[in-house]
Design goal:
alpha/beta, Rossmann fold, seven-stranded mixed sheet, five-stranded parallel sheet, 14 strands
Length: 386
């Protein structure tokens, strides 16, 4: 019976190829019919616009890992292919991309960049019963309520903002303002700061917002400076955060700026240059600039082998590499003929799994793999100090 199914499948593929040759189109065919020897993943991310460095770097890191896996025979003899579409960090474009990817028959969705885009995509993935793995966001709205199809490799914004507030209040700083993007990402970060302050009897000293994909920060600076804060937590992307830092300092702010990991650490450092000195960024991945963890050494070796002197490690590409490594392990555990259900089971079997100094802990009712948070600081020469 199994042999008969294999012959039938082969005949079906041959027929599809023949039809494709006659009509010069395979658009709309499921990915498995287009390439039976590949596991095709779909990604919608920002590859243009003010947040483009995040999508580009995450994809570079993920591709380093997938290339490494493919060079060693793939997963059960199948190579991994990542198909990426540009959404410019806009939810409507992301929704359209997601429908296109699902209709094309991708095996799973992977590495979506951002909260508003991921919130737009997850219901589509859930309806289609397609796994949604390792979005580059820490928003609680994607984690609660529990979703069988969503897996998060990184810590949440609640974890990050709790660590930031803990450090600030430990040194006596209590007047903490929040500059945030005016969307679901910004609200997720604001909620995290507010939640961390509440047990201390505190609330944000002042608030200021910026529209997504813009750098119109003057109103936010005016609003926040009126509250006379001693520190400002920023929940936005690197261009708007850099614009706010410059404008706030010009307006006389002498305190410290804190950012969550999504800002894009290296992109922020490059955007600020010498103005970046003393800016703090929380991190949810191992240090990518030196082999302090085994997975960091792997990442650096893969990057230098592939790109030589052109390789520039950063936290965003490190996250892509780690996320891809977690997914590859889930695929290995999914069996010789992986399905959505077997991938979910494979990922759920990764209890306290060590990716090389970075633990991922999934389970049948636990799809948030890590709570790891670290704090780093930018230097005047554009470096990141651990």
């Amino acid at each position: 019976m199994d042999d008969f199914r294999e012959v039938t499948l082969l005949q079906r593929r041959q027929l599809i190829r023949a039809c494709a040759g006659l009509c010069t189109a395979s658009v709309g065919l499921p990915a498995w019919t287009q390439s039976g020897h590949k596991i095709v993943l779909g990604q919608s991310a920002a590859f243009s616009g003010p947040a483009s460095a995040l999508g580009e770097e995450f994809r570079k890191g993920a591709q380093l890992l997938f290339d490494r896996v493919n060079a060693r025979g793939g997963i059960g003899g199948r190579s991994i292919e990542l198909q990426s579409l540009d959404d410019g960090y806009e939810p409507d474009r992301c929704s359209a991309n997601t429908r296109k990817l699902i209709d094309s028959g991708v095996f799973a969705l992977f590495g979506y960049i951002g909260t508003p885009t991921s919130i737009a995509a997850l219901p589509l993935a859930t309806q289609a019963q397609v796994p949604f793995v390792a979005p580059f966001t820490g928003a609680e709205a994607l984690r609660t309520p529990f979703n069988r199809y969503a897996f998060h490799v990184r810590a949440s914004y609640f974890n990050e903002t709790a660590e930031i507030v803990k450090q600030l209040t430990a040194v006596g700083i209590r007047k903490i303002a929040v500059f945030h993007q005016n969307d679901s990402y910004g609200k997720a970060g604001l909620d995290g700061v507010t939640r961390a302050l509440q047990p201390l009897g505190l609330q944000p000293a002042a608030l200021g917002t910026v529209e997504r994909n813009t750098v119109a920060v003057d109103a936010a600076v005016q609003s926040i400076m009126a509250g006379k804060p001693d520190a400002i937590v920023q929940i936005s992307a690197y261009k708007s955060c850099a614009a706010f830092i410059r404008a706030a300092r010009k307006a006389g702010f002498g305190g410290t700026f804190y950012n969550v990991s999504f800002v894009g650490t290296q992109a922020l450092a490059q955007e600020l240059g010498a103005d970046g000195r003393g800016v703090v960024v929380s991190q949810v991945m191992p240090f990518p600039f030196a082999p302090k963890a085994h997975v960091s050494g792997e990442f650096l070796s893969a990057g230098r082998t592939a790109l030589g002197d052109k390789f520039e490690p950063n936290y965003s590409s490190m996250e892509g590499y780690v996320a891809a490594k977690a997914l590859a392990e889930g695929l290995r555990r999914a069996g010789g003929k992986p399905t959505a259900d077997s991938l979910i089971a494979g990922l759920e079997s990764m209890h306290e799994f060590d990716l090389g100094g970075f633990l991922v802990d999934f389970g049948p009712q636990k799809h948030t793999g890590s709570k790891f948070v670290d704090l780093t600081i930018l230097t005047a020469d554009g470096r990141v100090r651990h």
